[in-house]
Amino acid sequence: MPYPNLMSPTEIGPVRLRNRIVFSAHGTKMSTRGVPDERLVAYHEARARGGVGLIICEAASVHETAGGSSSYAVAYTDDCIPGYRRIAGAVHRHGTKIFGQLYHPGRGDIAGGSDDGTIFPIYAPSAIACESKQLTPRAMPVGLVREIVRSYGEAARRMAEAGLDGVEVMAHHSHLVSQFLNPRSNRRNDAYGGSFENRMRFLVEILHEVRAEIGDGFALGVRISGDEQATFGLRPDETNAIAQAVDRLGLVDYFSVNSGSCSAFDGSIHVVPPMAIEAGYVGKYSAAIKKVVTKPVIATGRINTPDLAEGIIASAKADLCGIVRGLICDPDLPSKAAADTPQTIRLCIGCNQACIGHSPKGAPISCIQYPESGRELQFGDLPPAARRCRVLVAGGGPAGLKAAAVAASRGHDVTLLEKRNELGGQAMLAAALPGREEFGGIVSNLVGEAERAGARLVPGVTVTRELVDREAPDVVIVATGVRRRTPDLGQNEVDAWRLFQILHDHAGEHRRRKLFWELGQANVGAEVVVVDSRLDWLAMGLAEQLALGGCKVRLAVLGYMPGQNIPKQVRDHWAGVLHRLGVEVLPYMRYLGAEGDTARFAHMTGGREVLVRPVDTVIHVAPPVPETELEESLSGYTGIVHIVGDCLAPRTAEEAVLDGLKAGATAELGPVRGLHLLDRAVVTPQARIAMHTTTPLQASKL
Ligand SMILES: Cc1cc2nc3c(=O)[nH]c(=O)nc-3n(C[C@H](O)[C@H](O)[C@H](O)COP(=O)(O)O)c2cc1C
Ligand code: SF4
Of 43, 441, 516, 527, whose Cβ has the fewest other Cβ atoms within 10 Å? Predict the structure, then answer.
């Protein structure tokens, strides 16, 4: 049997699981007025169909003081029961078990704020603000503490009534239970504060209350951060002692171990650890807890392949493995592992962009590589093409590759032509930056999908109007991406794209700034200013690269901070790296020009001039422009033309792949302009769809 440890059945208390892969809890924003809706049912059913052993539903507020916007799950009224019942029914049909998760954020309040834009009063053991919220909570009176303890029991009872198989109490990530456990956040001098025993009391009472409500036929677990990774968070010695004390109570059936804290900037990096954090690192924390408890331990955190999970279980670091983003990205990961075809798994790259990155935008969860995720009702089961068309995709970046994969999977005859000798477009350049190597996975995953679906991928061929006229495809999907802006560069100014290209072409050698000199390809001096007009990962990565090579780097941003437009965990991690490397950040900087050894800026709102010197080189990280030449040349073409990705409008890889999905899903219906395609797609009067054609484009002749 492939993956004999990971795929073997096991028990958690009274619940038997078909394998040891757990889709650990994660907020999806697919509840309406706090009640799980049909999108969430379809989302979880897709993972159950994909073979996961256990799903743990997202954090659900146990009490109205837990706050939260209405797209978050709540379990403090009976209204939640029908939604949970539908989810349980859907996943049970496929042999997957399902638990709920009981949540109170205390002073953390990650639940998205209120719907009317005002700030909830927040409650905690003591009136001490945390670093991530900067709001002083109200210290809970004892009466409220007891009421909240009871609310955990009532919420668990609702989940049992809905037909779930178990519940998990959140004692991790510095949420309310952890705030009681932690002597730095709990300064009470009543029965709930002071000694270890007193600080444990809140959790112990909750566990008794929940067990009393649900009886022995229902599983009960506790989630704990092995290390909250925060200056004022719980440390491993403390969390191990807590787990051991809980185990001795004999009330819980399992421990779920992860890391991080929602109360602090440093800790929050580990709540959803980005690609720069070592894969599988959580194993050391789960192993420590496993040593001091008698019940099964689930480890979750950057376990992104079945091989890694198998190794963690085989080496007794955990009994089960949680794989969250791995299954957001590929719901079929478990069945592909069971079928011993791990090479077909779409591996999560830890970019955080469309999963946790959607959360602050109030949008439902998705994945940049697999935008079908969270959109199962719309794209979960695409129908085969009604007519088989010859589809020509122009451009082999993420948009073109996704369009090719989806169109081919629906039965179209697809040829993708890419003018460069390499597929992947900008994504390959991005992967050349330190700590971003995994980003290249988006390309290899999409290439694999397109090829397995039967699309022909041909690099080194430029699509022109003449080529299109000659081949006369029924559908052209234009995914030509962007070209570099060509600003008028002064003598000491360099366009960052040139440097990315050099890094890419010399991957492996890139730890040396000297590379740029030695190759004589770019004029980079020892004192540089990176002018960041994008506020994404590019300038941060380049600044790191140059600082690693020994440059004195200043990063001047056209906004509040570098990485303003990327997910918090990625930005916060990188901010720490840059600070350690001595990179100086200059916020609110509008670039005016360079003279001699001086770069001139104006403060974006104050207007006063800021002079930066000495400067040898100014490096511009600027937004690119869409490559529209092919689109313009196709004017009047009688076939269907779709325009997707950055050549429609430069955005991120997420939108490019989503555009590609929409174009592939509607290829024969076009034309398509990237937005709301399924709602708006129409067949143009001049559209010429060649029926039943089977002649492939003659790629070899091109
Ligand atoms: C979008 C998102 C929301 C999350 N929400 C929760 C949550 O509600 N409860 C929880 O205990 N952990 C939550 N997490 C943390 C995950 O359970 C998990 O520990 C984390 O994603 C690391 O695992 P992974 O590397 O397999 O993704 C969330 C993670 C993500 C990506
Ligand atoms: S958006 Fe990125 S981190 Fe999130 S699941 Fe997809 S690949 Fe993984």
Answer: 527
Ligand nearest to the CA of 26: 1
Whole-prediction pTM: 0.94
Number of structural domains found in the chain: 3
Nearest to 574 by CA among 560, 559, 564, 586: 564
- Gap from CA of 218 to ligand 2 centroid (Å): 32
Taking CA atoms only, the protein residue closest to ligand 1 atom 31 is: 356
**DSSP structure string for 290-330:** HHH-SS-EEEESS--SHHHHHHHHHTTS-SEEE-SHHHHH-
Q: What is residue 336's predicted lDDT score, i.e. its pLDDT?
A: 98
Other Cβ atoms less than 10 A from the Cβ of 366: the count is 24
Of the residues 338, 357, 378, which one is the last residue of a structural domain? 378
CATH code for the domain of 592: 3.50.50.60
If one counts every other C-beta atom within 10 angstroms of the C-beta of residue 611, the result is 11
Q: Whose CA is nearest to atom 2 of ligand 2?
A: 351
| 324 alpha carbon, closest ligand | 1
Ligand 1 environment, Cβ below 6 A? 24-27, 58-59, 101, 170, 223, 258, 271-272, 300-303, 322-326, 355-356, 359, 365
| 256, 322 contact by CB (below 8 A) | yes
∠ CA 196-197-203 to the nearest 5 degrees?
100
For the CA of 353, the nearest atom of ligand 2: 1
Q: What is the CATH number of the domain that holds 260?
A: 3.20.20.70
Integer Cα distance of 387 and 390 in angstroms: 10
Average pLDDT, the chain: 91
357-396 per-position pLDDT tens digit: 999 888 999 999 999 999 999 999 899 998 999 999 999 9
For residue 635, which amino acid is it?
A: S
